[in-house]
Structure formats: structure tokens, C-alpha cells
């Protein structure tokens, strides 16, 4: 449960935070309102004339809304957005945010997005919403990648939540690929499941692919993450996985006590 509203927010710098007003009459901040404050803080990094990677998910949605608001108010100009999903594309178009793609803009100034897990080294798990491939392409092409999460997403190690580690695969002979994935991860007690959509059929990504969710019983260990990443990507039929290693520049964490900022190579 959120604390009573208090304009005290824990940050790593002294820059002001434009705090949206609490929606409840009791002046308390809900988790969604805390996410919105973190998203507003992330948008402080946005400057006019930037090419922006627009993230996908409940927290990133607030950031896209804020960018649209600042454009409408004339506080931002000449912004070009590159959406990480069809859903974000629709949202951005509704806000009149000019859009483009990586073909036209191979270098992205800044991306803002959420994450499913963040470890102490700022490695991420993403893709439980199904947009991992476009997210990794766009955020990997970014000069700066700002991640917004609530404090429940902070883990001691990758897969620390014991929830899914997503892998996007081609539909062709998906059972074969899923079994190969399970064998690669067998040493970690892996169970590989095809992700299902609302109608009980295989979930299809924006790219027309399937997702295999891998559930691990054992910790992969920090030193093994790169090895595991390479082993997964070497499998024919695998498109991409949801480990975003050494990609985040800054993580903004929303919690009951406010917002904390962690930067890469920072001890805070």
C-alpha cells in the first residue's frame, strides 16, 4: 500500500521532479502513480530534436503519454519516435508523435522502457509482454537507455523472480526448437513452455513468431550469463532471447518511499 503523499523522492542528483497530482482524495500515491512519477523523471532526459525509442508496457506508456503532452505544449520540438511494438505505435500516433524506424534512423539518441527484472549490475529480463525483439533492436541502437521499474522488479540475480525467461522463436517446427532450448538449459532445471494467447493458441508476436517461456530452478550465475546467451542464440530457430545484458544506462525505480535512480557503474 502506498504511503501518504510526501514530495520526498530519493534521487542520485538534484534535478527537480515534475510530480503529477495524486488522484485520490486521501492524498496517497498508488503504485501506478509512482510509476507515472518515475516515467516523468525518465522524460526529463528527453530534449528537442532527439530520436527516441518508445517502450512498451504499463510504465513506458506513461512516458509516451508525457512526451506527447510536452510536444502538444510546445515544450519539446522535432521529436522522432521509434516504437517497440504495434501497441506503442498506435498510442504514439494517437498523441501525434512523429514516427520513423531504424532504417531511417540507425542511431537512437535515447530509449525509455520498462523491464521485468533488474539485477544489481543493471542486467535486465524483458519480453514477458511479448515485444522483446523490437525492444532489443531499438534499445541496442540507443546512445542512452533509461529503464523504468517498480521496486518489485529488482532481483538479486537474473531469473531471481522465478518467472519466465522469454525466447522468441520461428513457428516452423517450434516443438523441436523448444526441446533444443530445454536441453541447452537442462543444467539449470529448465522447463520450456510455449506461450499461449487468450484463445489457447500459440501467442504470436508482432513479428509473426512464437515465444517459449523458460522456467529455471537454479541460478545461472553472473559469470554464466554471456555463455548462456551465446548458447541460446546459436540454436537454429531461435530469433532472440529476453536477457538484456549490459544495455541499460540508467534505471529509475519507483517505490513506496519515492523514486531512486541507479546509473551504470554507480554504487548507489
Summarize the helices and strands and which ones pair or pack:
Layout: H1 31-43, E1 51-54, H2 58-72, E2 80-83, H3 86-94, E3 108-113, E4 117-118, E5 124-125, H4 132-140, E6 142-150, E7 165-169, H5 174-184, E8 191-194, E9 210-215, H6 225-233, E10 238-241, E11 243-244, E12 250-255, E13 258-263
Parallel strand pairs: 1-2, 1-3, 3-6, 6-12
Antiparallel strand pairs: 4-5, 5-11, 7-9, 7-10, 8-9, 12-13
Helix pairs in contact: 1-2
Family: Belongs to the ribose 5-phosphate isomerase family.
Pathway: Carbohydrate degradation; pentose phosphate pathway; D-ribose 5-phosphate from D-ribulose 5-phosphate (non-oxidative stage): step 1/1
GO biological process, one term: pentose-phosphate shunt, non-oxidative branch
Q: What is the number of helical segments per DSSP (H or I, 4+ residues)?
A: 6
Structural class: alpha/beta
Mean pLDDT: 89
The major beta sheet can be summarized as: 6 strands, mixed
**First-last Cα distance:** 25 Å
Report the strand count. Answer: 13
Number of domains: 2
Strands ordered across the widest β-sheet: 2-1-3-6-12-13
Judging by the overall fold, what is the CATH architecture of the largest domain?
3-Layer(aba) Sandwich
Helix and strand sequence: HEHEHEEEHEEHEEHEEEE
Q: Which percent range describes the beta-strand content?
A: 15-25%
What is the CA-based Rg, rounded? 19 Å
**What coarse outline follows from CA principal-axis ratios?**
globular
Please bin the fraction of helical residues: 10-25%
CATH-derived topology of the largest domain: Rossmann fold
CATH class of the largest domain: Alpha Beta
State the low-pLDDT regions, or none: 1-10, 13-21
Protein name: ribose-5-phosphate isomerase
Enzyme class: isomerase
Keywords: Isomerase
Family: Belongs to the ribose 5-phosphate isomerase family.
